[in-house]
Design a protein that fits this description.
The chain has 138 residues and is an all-alpha fold. The protein folds into two domains: 41 residues, no CATH class; 82 residues, no CATH class. Helices cover 60% and strands 0% of the residues.
């Protein structure tokens, strides 16, 4: 294959980090300094800028739809919402396939009950859901 006609390089964070290192080497900047983010050397498109980029933003994006499906006036809202939050955390940390395990609902119930039985954790979940509901009102 002709090395000059290989097409554009893959646009990945690793590729951008490599390019940043090459730029620093050519300018003589200190290579022992901590490296920044890939966004230091490129500007994402407007479509990419709208995507969640932090772990917290990704979590919120994943649980948002499930929480919005629930009725805040339902007397079972808090337990149901807590289960959705558990789903979001487990899915993000271990992958969605983990939630498909037949024993998962039992574990999900146990985690949700444990969270809600602790007054401090229960209050934190209630506060989160109150803020979430306020930010979703149109």
């Amino acid at each position: 294959m002709d090395p000059l006609n290989q097409g554009p390089p893959p646009l990945s964070t690793a590729w951008f980090e490599t390019q940043k290192k090459k730029m620093k080497e050519s300018t003589g900047q200190d290579q022992t300094a901590p490296t920044g983010k890939a966004s230091d050397v490129y500007t994402p498109s407007s479509a990419a800028q709208g995507l969640p980029s932090t772990k917290q933003e990704k979590f919120l994006e994943n649980v948002k739809t499930g929480l919005l499906e629930l009725d805040p006036e339902d007397e079972e809202y808090l337990p149901k919402a807590t289960k959705k939050l558990v789903d979001g955390v487990i899915g993000q940390e271990y992958g969605e396939h983990f939630t498909k395990n037949p024993a998962y609902p039992q574990m999900q119930n146990k985690i949700a009950k444990t969270i809600l039985s602790d007054p401090t954790h229960r209050e934190a979940v209630e506060d989160f859901l109150a803020v979430f509901q306020m930010t979703q009102r149109v």
